[in-house]
């Protein structure tokens, strides 16, 4: 079986800290809870005897720390890919979430989380991200085993649009969003990639 496990990094905000819209230009480390989230996911994967034949992460610290926790003491060493990095939120980068919602509106954010339609001013480069996911999935479709992809919320959603079959499955999801410490499974079977779970936390 061929599987791609897409994981969002763990928490980067401490309890009580105002949530900000962090992206490509913001690189905070994981909090204690973020590290615990990675530990819980690692335990779940170990219980299922999941192993990886390759692992990828974005260049951002929060994703590298999460990936390191997931593959600690085992091969493979995670490699970095720039196309897995979070998007740039433009003028909303590192701003409190309440300010972002007030400026662009809840409906605009809902369109981003439900359909990957970026708000005006955000630097996303959707076509390049889709091309990268398509190329990766095309290569993985000829392989057996499981690939680990640790990324951010903005980047992960483009995996759901990389093939017609994935996009059809994604229409049944309530949101394209991945919560911190959550994962999704893409499975290649019968000649097509399908979604076998999304936004799941242990």
Continuous helix count: 7
Looking at how many chains there are and whether they match, the oligomeric state comes to: single chain
Quick one: CATH class? Alpha Beta
Give the helix level as a range of percent.
Answer: 25-40%
- Average residue-wise pLDDT: 95
Q: Report strand %.
A: 15-25%
Coarse morphology: globular
Helix-strand pattern:
EHEHEHHHEHHEE
**How many separate domains make up the residues?**
1
Specify the structural class.
alpha/beta
- Overall radius of gyration: 16 Å
Which strands sit side by side, in order, in the main sheet? 3-2-4-1-5-6
Number of strands: 6
Q: At the fourth CATH level, what is the homologous superfamily?
A: Phosphoglycerate mutase-like
CATH architecture: 3-Layer(aba) Sandwich
Ranges with pLDDT <50 over ≥5 residues? Answer: none
Tell me about the largest β-sheet: 6 strands, mixed
Describe this structure as you would to a colleague.
With 202 residues, the protein is α/β, with parallel strands linked by helices. Helices cover 35% and strands 15% of the residues. The chain has a six-stranded mixed sheet with strand order 3-2-4-1-5-6. Strand 2, helix 2 and strand 3 form a beta-alpha-beta unit. Helix 1 runs parallel beside helix 2. The longest helix has 16 residues. The model has no long low-confidence stretch (mean pLDDT 95).
């Amino acid at each position: 079986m061929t599987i791609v496990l897409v994981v969002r990094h763990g928490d980067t905000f401490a309890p009580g800290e105002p949530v900000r819209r962090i992206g490509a230009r913001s690189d905070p480390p994981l909090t204690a809870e973020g590290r615990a989230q990675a530990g819980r996911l690692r335990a779940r994967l170990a219980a299922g005897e999941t192993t990886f034949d390759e692992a990828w992460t974005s260049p951002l610290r929060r994703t590298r720390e999460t990936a390191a926790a997931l593959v600690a003491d085992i091969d493979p060493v995670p490699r970095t890919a720039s196309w897995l990095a979070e998007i740039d939120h433009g003028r909303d980068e590192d701003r409190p979430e309440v300010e972002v919602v007030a400026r662009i509106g809840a409906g605009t954010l809902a369109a981003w989380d439900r359909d990957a339609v970026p708000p005006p001013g955000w630097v996303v480069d959707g076509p390049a991200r889709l091309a990268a996911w398509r190329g990766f999935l095309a290569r993985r479709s000829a392989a057996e085993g499981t690939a680990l992809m640790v990324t951010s919320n903005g980047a992960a959603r483009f995996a759901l649009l990389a093939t017609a079959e994935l996009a059809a499955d994604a229409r049944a999801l309530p949101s394209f969003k991945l919560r911190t410490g959550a994962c999704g499974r893409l499975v290649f079977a019968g000649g097509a990639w399908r979604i076998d779970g999304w936004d799941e936390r242990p």
